[in-house]
Amino acid sequence: MTTRIPPRRGQCPLLLMGLIATIASAEPLVLNEYNAVSGSNFLNGGDEFVDEDGNTSPPFDPFFGRVQGNGGDWFELVVVAEGLDIRGWQLEIFSDGVVEPRLVFTDASLWQSLEAGTIITVAEDVPDDPSYDPANGDWWINVNAANPEDGGTGEFITADNFPVNNDDWQLTIYDAEGNVVFGPAGEGIVSDDGIASDIGVNSREVFALQASPAADIGRDDPGYNDSNTSSFGAPNGVLDQVAQDFTPLRTDQPWPDRDFDGISEDGNRNGIVGDATCIGGATANCDDNCALVANPGQADTGGIGNALADGIGNACQCGDVNNDGQVLQNDGLRVRAFALGILPQLPSPTKCDVSGDGLCDLFDAAVILRAQTGQPPGVTQSCEAAVGPEDETDLLYAADRVVEIDVTMDPTDFQTLREQTRDINELIEDPECGTRPWPSPFTWFPADITVDGAQQINLVGIRKKGFQGSLSEEKPALKLDLGRFIAGSDINGVTRLTLNNARQDPSLVKQCLAFQIYRDAGLAASRCNFAQVSVNGEELGIYVNVEEVDETFVARNFNDPLGKLFEAEISDFWPGPWINTWDPDTETAEDGNEEILDLANVLEFTPYETLLPELEARVDIPWFVRYWAIEALIAHSDGYAFNMNNSFFYVSPMDNQMRFGPWDMDSDFFPEGQSIFAIRSALARRMYNLPDTQALFLAEVQALVDTLWDADAYLAEIDRVDALLSPRLLALFGQGAVNEMRFFQDTLRSWLSNREGDVLAELAAPPVDVRDVKVPHLCEQDVP
Q1: 741 backbone φψ class: left, alpha, beta (φ>0; ψ -120 to 50)
Q2: Which residue in 678, 636, 680 sits closest to 504, CA to CA?
Q3: Of 272, 270, 275, 320, whose CA–CA distance to 299 is shortest?
């Protein structure tokens, strides 16, 4: 089974101990499209002049035009490995329960060395066209596989008619030895995870890859779908008719290159990752010898017990805990001393685990020492430096990473983006204020980006973000949607980025620290680090790179990813406008807000005597109490409990329970020392006025102070962020920018040092009375 290695990856400081395979096959030849339009139908139905949707400019194939049958039986392949030799390769078609005789590519020299980005069409009604000349822009080969009497020549592929239709049609590709190279792919397959495909192709459609072809496209790739656009011998239409991007395949761009050191993981471009790693100082035409650690020099001093290069770079040589590039007896003795507590730390702890159990202990020491004389079980490449995190997206949010994002876009578009804003007075005066989620004034613009100076992604979507406090023309907060116009683009598996401008957090510490506290408490919260952003060569500065709260976030944090996700934007469970401004963030949430209306009704009309059981049926009470207690502890002045803002809740269909989480954490650690009893939201106020849940809240705050709060660790985090960012700020904007950041960091240091005492003093005093009354909404200007 092929392990999925996405083609574009980011720099790779490693934090977690999860284990994944880093040496894997890439898919050298993939299915790109097949025609399921029957001989009696036009593409998307209808007739020659209008399709079944009433389009009088109906869809047509650029090669065939709009014709009945859409060109007959044909399918399309894409080469994604450089120098691919497909002589003798076989194509097996499964159609309506029948396995057809295999079509075989001949020994013709045409197939001997195909360049990545080549399109191969196999058809019955189109003559052979071997005029293949990539150097002059001709990337297409067509071969006719019809019977000889129907036009097939047999020169390049078997001359034998074949079916293509919408009856669970599937294709499997075999190499000359009969090994499966790709597939089966098509309609009606079961994925590698055992999930039956729900793609349904009818007799008026084609089956197409609606993502850019790449080495990581598996047979069950989510980019495969039915389509009413067709493009024989050319890149497929994607989304809003934007074509697939073949640029990475047809240029010398090194990919995949997850550590962005300029050495591709498939540097010899044969479609196999890690089969020919760089040895002896070579850096060209060989595969990266440390795929997850940036090592542009590819240093390889030696291996286990000797000084002979072994194709594993020094940067990721497991067992080499003293960083000399070799795994020798001294390494085993160091690990032993560390495991016994004699040695306080190792020079390179991420290289210690050579047994794959996630530990660094006496067993690892024994394995290293035994390996010197060739005794089993032997050192394995299972250490953190070699395998990276189990969740690849962790690479993008690694704490010590600053993602460099250089944006190129139309200057007029960027000026428009900068100037777009919200006028809060206009919103309030709008007759529809409070009847719906707040409308967005921001436009998605096309742009190209370069990540860390190495990875180029074309035609991403970019727009401004912010409700009020973070709005800025000088340094606009930004959203990036890498697949907005061309599907398939990502950075370390992440397709959408939120780049906060930290306008309300000049210390550049608060947001990531706050999210980390929530995660340390076991709640769902975004991962977070930093980005350095420029647009058209203008440096905008340091941004906070925050994980988007969306379907992907839900799938990673909750057991069932199919529930409803709502974001609070001045939203609550009070009657009136409060319940209408919750912003649905998943497709299921867009279907209706019944849960919001139901909870608002319960909070308004249920007497205190029977309220708790009603709440327990709708809200995960322990989860909410912990979420609320952390808001109180970190003085989140713009969160849910106090300001009915910058938060979300998720409702799982498994138990119909609401679970809350934080968002936009730049207004926490409130410098004036906000009281833990600053409670204004409907749910928190009613629960505070219930004796049982008030006691739970106060006990939870106390427990967090006793077991979670760690001011010394938070002060150390400030020091770490300062060391990470001050050199960049100095280079970008001079010492004044560094001084400004440090001024606010010093203010935060003082606050963090005093917070535990302030909270304990509040807990020791009698609980504050909090009136259970409705708070007026912005849209309710006449409410007293």
Answers
A1: alpha
A2: 636
A3: 320
What is the pTM for the complete model shown?
Answer: 0.69
- Residues 276 and 287: beta-carbon distance below 8 Å: yes
CA-to-CA separations, 343 to 209, 321, 348, in angstroms, rounded:
55, 12, 13
Asked whether the beta carbons of 6 and 254 are under 8 A apart, the reply is no
Residue pLDDT, tens place only, 673-721: 789 999 999 999 999 999 999 999 999 999 999 999 999 999 999 999 9
* Cis? peptide before 607, omega within 30° of 0: no
Confidence of residue 1 (pLDDT cuts 50, 70, 90): very low
Which positions ≥6 away from 412 have C-beta within 8 Å? Answer: none
Give the three-class secondary structure for 557: helix
Strands (E), 465-554: 478-481, 496-500, 528-535, 538-547
Q: Which helix (H) or strand (E) holds 74?
A: strand 74-79
C-alpha dihedral sign at 304, 307, 312, 316 = positive
Is residue 18's pLDDT more than 60? no
Of the candidates 163, 79, 154, the one whose C-alpha atom is nearest the C-alpha of residue 121 is 79
Two tokens at 315?
Answer: 């940067």
How far is the C-alpha of 350 from the C-alpha of 387, rounded, in Å? 10
CA dist list (Å): 74 to 71, 232, 244, 731: 7, 8, 19, 57
Place of tokens 């990276």: 388
Amino acid at position 452, single letter: D
In whole angstroms, give the CA distance from residue 434 to residue 429: 10
Find where tokens 């007026």 sit. 776
Count CB neighbours of 294 within 10 A: 19
Give the pair of three-digit tokens for residue 363. Answer: 């067993």
d(CA 329, CA 373): 10
Contact 102, 94 (CB under 8 A): no
DSSP annotation of 776? P
| Contact criterion met (CB below 8 Å) for 467 and 628 | no
**Is residue 218 within a helix (H) or strand (E), and if so which, with residue range?**
none
Characterise 705 by phi-psi region: left (phi > 0), alpha (psi -120 to 50), beta (else).
Answer: alpha
Residue 655 makes CB contacts below 8 A (sequence gap 6+) with: none
The number of CA neighbours under 13 Å toward the Cβ of 283 is 10
User: Concatenated DSSP letters for 84-131?
Assistant: B--TT-EEEEEETTEEPPPEEB-S-GGGSSBPTT-EEEEESSS--B--
Structure tokens, 671: 């410098």
Asked if 205 and 36 touch (Cβ cutoff 8 Å), the reply is yes
Question: What sign does the CA torsion over 416, 422, 425, 426 have?
Answer: positive
| Residue 299: C-alpha distances to residues 266, 303, 508, 639, 722 (Å) | 18, 12, 36, 49, 31
In terms of phi and psi (left: phi > 0; alpha: psi -120 to 50; beta: otherwise), the region of 362 is: alpha
Helices (H), 101-246: none
Please determine, for residue 362, whether its predicted confidence score (pLDDT) is greater than 50: yes
Segment 230-260, tens digit of pLDDT: 999 999 975 445 568 888 788 765 456 777 7
Residues, the chain: 784
Buried b (16+ CB within 10 A) or exposed e, 245-255: bbebbeeeebb
Based on its alpha-carbon atoms, the radius of gyration of the chain, rounded to whole angstroms, reads: 30
What's at 160, amino acid-wise?
A: D
| Other CB atoms within 10 Å distance of the CB of residue 403 | 23
